[in-house]
Amino acid sequence: MWSPSETPRPEQPTGRQPTVLMTAVKAGRVNQGRVLQALHDLGPLSRADLARLAGVSRATIGSIVQPLLERGLLAEGEPQRGATPGGKPARPLWFAPDSPPLAAVHLVPGWVEAALVSADGRILAAASGRFRVTAPAATVVDCVVDRLNAVLAGSAARALGVGIAVGGIVESTSGTIVACNLMPELSGLPLGPLVSERVDLPVHLDLHPRAQAIGDRWSGPGRGEQSFASIYIGEAIGAGLFLNGAIHCGPAGAGGEIGHTVVDVRGRTCRCGQRGCWETIATRDWLREEAARLRLPAAQAMTTALLAGLSAAGNADAKELFERYAHNLALGVVNLQQILAPGLFILHGDVIAGGEALRGRVERQARSQLPPRSAAEPQITFGSAHDRTTLLGAAGLVLSQSFPLVG
Ligand SMILES: [Zn+2]
After folding, report:
1. Do residues 94 and 100 touch, judged by C-beta distance below 8 A?
2. How far is the CA of 188 from the centre of ligand 1 (A)?
3. Sequence-ordered strand ranges (E) for 223-273
4. Do 179 and 192 contact (CB within 8 A), yes or no?
5. How far is the CA of 274 from the centre of ligand 1 (A)?
6. InterPro entries this protein is in (predicted)?
7. Cβ 345 vs Cβ 231: under 8 Å
8. What pLDDT is stored for residue 4 in this prediction?
9. What's the 306 CA to ligand 1 centre distance in angstroms?
């Protein structure tokens, strides 16, 4: 007698995954994510505009945006006469004024900032607080929850969720900080679930530079770009990658640890235990140690702005260190460009204070270390010095989890 279990099945080659197709539900959410991204990129758009941009019918766009209208995320604006000759007046779609807000947390060693963000990217409320970097994990969780409650209290509408951007190694699937060299008390902390339980909202935790890249794409120099790298350079170094229209993320949030790629096999020992990581020659600590070795003024408080000033004033040691810093920064940029060619590099953190003098040097150094390829020369740009890109990106984590751009 025949039984279904005897049906011959094609064998899977060992170690290979079968091709997985998206379910209709998932494909719908991906399309909704792309509509939201088009609105973030281009501003209010009618269904006809969206249909033209996507190369599909208005009916298809209608079925994609209807659930977003029903959930109160989008709303139709006033009819615009003349926008569609001969047809019905177009009604531009935009984020509803009373759409559910997004909550965001940016957690760095000793400091936390929380914000309530509208779906169109405006910061509606913010609260920040300090804690000792050696504080126990429970104190840090209390600090995060207190600041979140402070911003959530100001909203009549229930937030869609909370995005948390944090440095270190994270496991985004479980919302856990796996390891954090600069806040060791937080290593192994399931911060996402702990916060979720206390504020009664879904929480998405991810790597700080990845959230920063989402913020750059939403409202920074990455707006409208198809590929770029968003690099944080300060007390540590990390990168968020936006490649071919989507944020890159390895399994469970892996990837982006560019600070721990080796650039000098005989170099100093890094905090991670390896030798010669990029972090050992391009962080704030490295710059201050080198400034002290050269006996530069205010070495222990050296900043890129101060170094640029000393260099411009003709201090020969400062000039040499400034060039070497630019060279060391360019090394990481070159490695990333050689492997993935994101083309555009948006630098954040300490480097911004170095101004055009530093930006230009890093760009020239990077270009001189790469083979000539005029169509793919790396461009370096700096984020804004006082922006809240990462906080905004943390809010964007909520949208990107709810409406992913890739399946
Ligand atoms: Zn390292």
Report:
1. no
2. 19
3. 228-233, 237-243, 246-247
4. no
5. 5
6. ATPase_NBD, HTH_MarR-typ, ROK, WH-like_DNA-bd_sf, WH_DNA-bd_sf
7. yes
8. 44
9. 27
Distance in Å, CA 49 to ligand 1 centroid: 48
What is the reported pLDDT for 253? 83
Which two structure tokens, joined as six digits, stand for 109?
């060693």
Q: Please provide the size of the chain in residues.
A: 407
Q: What is the pLDDT of residues 68-115, one digit of tens each?
A: 898 888 888 888 765 555 566 788 988 888 888 999 999 998 999 999
The domains of the chain, with CATH numbers, are 24-95 (1.10.10.10), 102-214+390-402 (3.30.420.40), 221-386 (3.30.420.40)
Report the alpha-carbon distance of residue 73 to residue 172 in Å, rounded: 25
Residue ranges of the chain with per-residue pLDDT less than 70: 1-19, 81-88, 373-375, 386, 404-407
- Taking the centre of ligand 1 as the mean of its atom positions, its distance from the CA of residue 276, in whole angstroms, is 7
Task: Using alpha carbons, list the distances in angstroms from residue 211 to 13, 62, 104, 193.
Answer: 37, 30, 10, 19
Cα(272) to centroid(ligand 1), Å: 4
User: Ligand 1 center to residue 360 CA distance, Å?
Assistant: 27
Asked if 247 and 262 touch (Cβ cutoff 8 Å), the reply is no
Residue 97, amino acid? P
Name, in order, each residue with C-beta under 8 angstroms of 272's C-beta and a sequence gap of 6 or more: 181, 260, 279
The alpha carbon of 260 and the centre of ligand 1 are apart by a number of angstroms equal to: 4
Q: Can you point out the beta strands (E) in 49-101?
A: 74-76, 93-95
Q: Angle 24-42/58-70 helices, nearest 10 degrees?
A: 90
Ligand 1 center from residue 206 Cα (angstroms): 19
Closest listed residue to residue 167, CA positions, set 229, 236, 114? 236
- 291 C-alpha to ligand 1 centroid (Å): 22
